[in-house]
Amino acid sequence: MTDEINYKNNPLNGVGLKALVTELVDHYGFEILYAYLNINCFKTNPSIASSVKFLKNTTWAREKVEAFYMYQYKSIPQVPADELQIPPRDRIVPDDQKPGKPAELSLEDAEQLREKREKKAAEYDENKRNRSTKHTKNSNDPWGQWKKN
Fold first, then answer.
1. CATH assignment of the domain containing 7
2. What is the pLDDT of residues 31-74, one digit of tens each?
């Protein structure tokens, strides 16, 4: 038995970063990419060369673009939540999943998605704030939560 993992069905297998960015820009354009990914290399003086240079040096942005390529452009079904921690290039795509047609994206849809994300972030921040103040409201001693009982 071999320990090698078969990544051949992964749409990113054999696709260089420059080819990936070129394919996305040719299909969607810089404006749509910025609207959906919110990465400044697609907004401020956008070019394929500068975007590739930025993405090579910025792991989080590269992984975000690679995930967008897999799930929006290649229309591969989303992975289970436990696999989201694995970088897109290292994900194993089952043999029965074949790339589909690119998703039809618009600036209006991107705006709705942005508003939805902002609302979700605000709810998360509010919940986080409520949890952190719960400990200090019950005690007159602000250091009480760190004292040993």
1. 1.10.720.30
2. 999 999 999 999 998 999 999 999 999 999 999 999 999 999 99
Per-residue confidence (pLDDT) for residue 2, from 0 to 100? 42
- Domain range for 124 is 106-137
DSSP states of 26-80? HHH-HHHHHHHH--GGGTSS--HHHHHHHHHH-HHHHHHHHHHIIIIIS-PPPPP
pLDDT at 94: 83
Cβ-based burial of 44 (10 A; exposed 0-12, middle 13-18, buried ≥19): exposed
Alpha carbon 26 to its chain centroid, in Å, reads 20
Contact 102, 73 (CB under 8 A): yes
